[in-house]
Input
Amino acid sequence: MTTEVRVPTLGESVTEATVATWFKKPGDSVAVDEMLCELETDKVTVEVPSPTAGVLADIVANEGDTVGVDALLANIAEAGEAGSATPEERPSAKAAAAAEAVSDDAKTVDVMVPTLGESVSEATVSTWFKKVGDTVAQDEMLCELETDKVSVEVPAPAAGVLSEITAAEGTTVSAGGKLGVIGGKAGASASASAQETAPAPAVQPASTGAGDVEDAPSAKKAMAEAGVSRDQVQGSGRDGRVMKEDVAKAVAAAASAPAAQTSAPVSTPRAPVSADDAAREERVKMTRLRQTIARRLKDAQNAAAILTTYNEVDMTEVMALRNEYKDLFEKKHGVRLGFMSFFTKACCHALREVPEVNAEIDGTDIVYKNFVHMGVAAGTPQGLVVPVIRDADQMSFAEIEKAIAEKGRRARDGKLSMAEMQGGTFTISNGGVYGSLMSSPILNPPQSGILGMHKIQDRPMVVGGEIVIRPMMYLALSYDHRIVDGKGAVTFLVRVKDALEDPRRLLMDL
Output
């Protein structure tokens, strides 16, 4: 009897992960809940425990493989079955058994496009790791597909020789489509490989049983005349074939909305680089977290009407209050008294008066939140994350400081869960810790407001008709002008300023 080890639920909107590390190898004994492997998503790291005690019979998803939710990672056999063969047929082998076709000369297996995920019906063949004539092992990676959401690696459904590639690099394929053919014997593909001295994918578009599929000649001519590359045009013809009208649509879209370009690297052509400069460059693939950050920030700019209003706050009273009570505060509560609790309290106070800054747009509705889940942006070695302090409006100064310290520590260690980064209603970003004097923060969708804190700097100010030196900080509120009017945004920022310049107003609820 065997037990399957599968990918656990990764969190809302997260559909795949990368196998980072296996702590066990086939043949090792494992106990219940003992850590087997670690998965990495674009946001968090997930540890996978053993669902039962026994022996790790085999590993289906190796380190570096991309896996979806509920995908098979490994099989665990009972201790008495440790010496048996692979406990269960791999899912890829099961699928291949249904799709394989037997010829007179050799047994062949078709390589098919796997299920791409909900609402995803097609993908583009980005890279072939093997060429025609290469020997492949079962579950060895053959090629990589790219969709508009994720990258999918396609493993070999059986061992043998890659005798044919039917979908070349750059070809658009549908779910369940045919990618290639694996022959059962090396000799079975000898004639095919002899006819192709260079890999067919590099010079040949996809071929099917009906023959080669190429872009329409009129489309090729139109692309050449317009100076449009093939990857800038979405084909609407059969098997992704580009038609003349597809080129016209791409040219019109580029002319009317150049700012609507996505964050994909191919959207902005590189400037010519000399050979000397190219030799000194270093190309590093973006991490999935960085790709997600880039996509979300661009989506925020495209979807919301972002506007920023500024003000400045005199930090004299807050700094004096903090200096007077910080030692007593730390002694009693076991946590340092920082500025973040003052800003969090001040924002919660202002959000009650200007509730639209704490709301969000859902279709044609405005959803007002009668609570404050405060997002606190934190920089980590992996990138920017925004842990959420829930019900911050109900917390004391000490509870807020403890929560921020704990979330910050977990963020730096990469231990935040998906639940800890979801559900925020407003965000505070403190660029001042890095020395920023002024900036315009970008919204954290679907939120309608974000407050930017900056560096505290002594500046000459006129107070009571005299010039005095005061510790000043610029504040920036970026807001979604679709829901927040200028009056509401300015009122919010003034209320934050008033509360910080006279912290007694927070106690009096003024």
